[in-house]
Write a structure and sequence with these properties.
Length: about 200
């Protein structure tokens, strides 16, 4: 089960919204990461009710149709005052095909009137690496980033819910952090560094 990579080893990144892809490429210590769009891979339906299930679905689909090892990120935001919503549907909270701005506005609407102390939230990231589509023992790495939801957006870096995610250590939103600083703190940064260790230990 050796996954020691040659420098030429290619890995498919399942799906991959552009915001995620940049962050993954900045941290992952593996060879060539190729976006799924370069292969004939049909979209996988994310039918799981957990981040882990959905990451496995995406990675397995990319490995199956791309015939290479595959990596998938499934991530999202959990808000305590909303019983964990938007959770696994973070990318489509305001409906299928909704934009980051639509989702963010829906979140602010749902939290209207909720006091600061009750706006606690966390970003979750699960990254799955599958050596092939039938891999019975995928590598699974996870990261969590605790924060709070602001009452209005601030900043223009990052993507998704970054403009409303308050980072208390730096007294600003996640969208006001530089990309490099976000990577040192974020759920995705933590998961990717854990994955690097898992890959190195193979
Ligand atoms: P894939 O193409 O990789 O499937 P996705 O964005 O469509 O990406 P996900 O189901 O993983 O699919 O949803 C993740 C959503 O969670 C993402 O669209 C954002 O709205 C939010 N999110 C995740 N990580 C984030 C981050 O670092 N900053 C802001 N929002 C984030």
């Amino acid at each position: 089960m050796n996954t020691a990579f040659s420098p030429q080893q290619r890995i498919i990144l399942a799906r991959g919204n552009p915001g995620k892809v940049k962050e993954i490429q900045a941290i992952l210590a593996t060879p060539l990461i190729l976006p799924q769009s370069q292969f004939s891979v049909p979209e996988a339906e994310e039918t799981g009710s957990t981040f882990i299930e959905n990451a496995i679905i995406k990675a397995r689909n990319a490995a199956l149709y791309g015939h290479l090892p595959a990596l998938a990120d499934d991530s999202g935001l959990i808000v305590d005052a909303l019983n964990g919503a938007p959770g696994v549907i973070s990318a489509r909270y305001a409906g299928v095909g909704s934009s980051d701005a639509d989702n963010l506005q829906k979140l602010l609407d749902e939290l209207d009137g909720v006091p600061d102390a009750e706006r606690t939230a966390r970003f979750i990231c699960v990254i799955v690496f599958m050596r092939h589509a039938e891999d019975p023992f995928p590598l699974i790495a996870q990261g969590v980033w605790e924060g709070r939801i602001l009452t209005q957006p601030a900043g223009s870096n990052g993507f998704g819910y970054d403009p409303v995610f308050w980072v208390s250590e730096h007294h600003c939103s996640s969208a006001e952090l530089s990309p490099a600083l976000k990577n040192t703190l974020s759920h995705r940064g933590k998961a990717l560094r854990q994955l690097n260790q898992l890959l190195a230990a193979q």
